[in-house]
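Dissemination and training. As part of the outreach component of the grant, students in the summer workshop were shown how a complex can be specified as a set of sequence lines and then modelled as a single object. The example used during the hands-on session is reproduced here so that future cohorts can follow it. Participants entered these lines:
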Amino acid sequence: GQSLEQPSEVTAVEGAIVQINCTYQTSGFYGLSWYQQHDGGAPTFLSYNALDGLEETGRFSSFLSRSDSYGYLLLQELQMKDSASYFCAVRDQGDRGSTLGRLYFGRGTQLTVWP
Amino acid sequence: AAGVIQSPRHLIKEKRETATLKCYPIPRHDTVYWYQQGPGQDPQFLISFYEKMQSDKGSIPDRFSAQQFSDYHSELNMSSLELGDSALYFCASSLGPSGKEQYFGPGTRLTVT
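and obtained this result:
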């Protein structure tokens, strides 16, 4: 089976840096994705890591260590609009060994940014 | 840029009724995924299609069925609705079956009374 662990809540102030960690267990790992979701909205794709290392996209960076089954999302220069839920999701081959990557989501981390 | 379109956005049904949710993927995207998200929960994978063929199946009840049509849009058919089916249903699409970047639609909020 698959399981992902991430903190349920994180709070920070505007301009700060916050790191959201994600550890996972999976049978056929392809890659780790991060999605942002505002209340009642659609998950929005942020990043995808298939290989070890850091990927940077503007204020957001994502890191993966496959040997540790661990990744994190780093958000810099926090803004009020960053308040949302952040999900890590494992792209996996599925229970039947399918090569098509369904996503398994963590429970999400609620980020609250204070002024 | 064009996004994933889902209709309807809101749907209210009674127990034992049927519902059909529609999804129109981003143009040129050939893979569609359906997810169910309960209140305060993470999205759960239901089913996916690639090039009009079912490609993967997750925790989708037997009461539900889905298909992808020649124009790549997809429909999720839900019968004998139960109270527990109340949730947000998201459709996502990707270019190619790898699904590295899945783009989600705005969702259909289904309420079963």
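The first strand of chain A starts at residue 3 and ends at 5. Students were then asked to discuss how this feature might be tested experimentally.
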